[in-house]
Amino acid sequence: MQPVVETLSGLERRVELSIALADIEKEVQAELKRAARKAKAPGFRPGKVPMSILERSHAPGIRYDVINSKVGQAFEAAVDAAKLRVAGMPSLEPKTDGDDKDTLAFVATFEVYPEVTVPEIGGLKVTRTVSNVGDAEIERTVEILRKQRARYETSADRAAQDGDRVILDFAGTIDGVAFEGGQAQDFPFVLGQGRMLPEFETAVRGLKAGESKVFPLDFPADYGSAEVAGKQAEFTITVKEVAEAQLPELDSEFAKQLGQADGDIDKLRADIRENIEREAKSRSLMRTKGSVMDALAGAATFDIPRALVDRETQDRVAAAREELKQRGLPNAESIDIPKDAFAAEAERRVRLGLLVSELVKAENLKAAPEQVRARIEEFAQSYEQPEQVVAYYLADRQRRAEIEAIVLEDNVVDFVLNKADVTEEDVPFEKLMGSN
């Protein structure tokens, strides 16, 4: 008689499984006979160990494996008969009441995948990001490249201003007590780049080498260090050096330093335009994709299996721990990382993943081989030897699968954009480049 799968609530199901003890013992004995052919024991030749000795040494482990296998087979048969897709691993408990002594009985509790209904795409509101790259953006990028290669000329009489490199000593206290990270000697930074808090940079502006200042500084409430966040400190600074930036000339030598072999400034500008247009396109697509995925996630109202959310949460925690290890945190393996911090994002990712999967299947949006190759070739253009990058990705199945996943998402985005209520947003290039 086929076991009946019982619905508990939502996606949770339960089924009772029974296994005949005679079937278990029959298979255990068969396994013991196979093991006996090669079994070794002190005082016996290989293959001549008495079955009674094998029973004591091998039977418990074999019986455990056989029971697990039989339970697994019974569970698969039950869910296959009920035409269910199981999400995650079932929870198995022995059933001891009301069963035949000749059988082992178990209760399996598990979750199933939900019935995913694709929402009406035409009713979704999404934003398509566009950004224009003009001559002003090219020249601004050129100036940034020049500043990155600036040399600094020290001047004893120069009052510090934005763009200057300043070297100073500083010491901070809170309620008269020094705090960790509040002191430094010969500390260099470029004024106006936002590396220091605004009040700190304001205090430095106008000072010359040898001059000092005492000033209050209010740490923001969300400052990275909890020890000082939201508190007011008093800083004493002494400027040791002020150096004015000397930008390199925009000439052939500068072009060669940036990889333009001919030293042609016009060709350099063309290369810069190509690079930042590619970057602007990539970031625009990412913002657009984010809007599409947000809209899809917001329209997905079906239940999701807790098991999948738990697994996704564990993956997020593992990724966070790995990032801490990469940053050199000594106790990254043991530090407590609260799972609750990832719960909302995990639920969103699971729900969105199920919906996107259903949409891909319903609309046949799979990544075509020619799409994958085109995306790899586009990606490779940012490298010095793109043909080698293309060959590497095409030869490596895992890397190719990563690109296939990106192309699949692109296909979903294009499909939604063709049907949804789309608003176009023109984002200034500087704002776009400042976004993550």
Automatic annotation (TrEMBL):
Q: Which reaction does it catalyse?
A: [protein]-peptidylproline (omega=180) = [protein]-peptidylproline (omega=0)
Sorted keywords for this record are: Cell cycle, Cell division, Chaperone, Cytoplasm, Isomerase, Rotamase
Entry's Gene Ontology cellular component terms: cytoplasm
Spell out the Pfam families in the cross-references.
Answer: FKBP_C, Trigger_C, Trigger_N
Superkingdom classification of source: Bacteria
Q: What is its main location?
A: cytoplasm
Q: Where is the PPIase FKBP-type domain?
A: 163-251
Asked whether the keyword Cytoplasm is assigned, the reply is yes
This entry's Enzyme Commission designation comes to 5.2.1.8
EC category name: isomerase
Keyword Cell cycle listed: yes
Gene3D superfamilies given in the database record? 3.10.50.40, Trigger factor ribosome-binding domain, Trigger factor, C-terminal domain
One of its GO biological process terms is: protein unfolding
Q: What does this protein do?
A: Involved in protein export. Acts as a chaperone by maintaining the newly synthesized protein in an open conformation. Functions as a peptidyl-prolyl cis-trans isomerase.
Similarity field = Belongs to the FKBP-type PPIase family. Tig subfamily.
UniProt xrefs under NCBIfam families: tig (TIGR00115)
What protein is this chain from? Trigger factor
Q: What is the lineage of its organism?
A: Bacteria, Pseudomonadati, Pseudomonadota, Betaproteobacteria, Burkholderiales
Its gene is tig
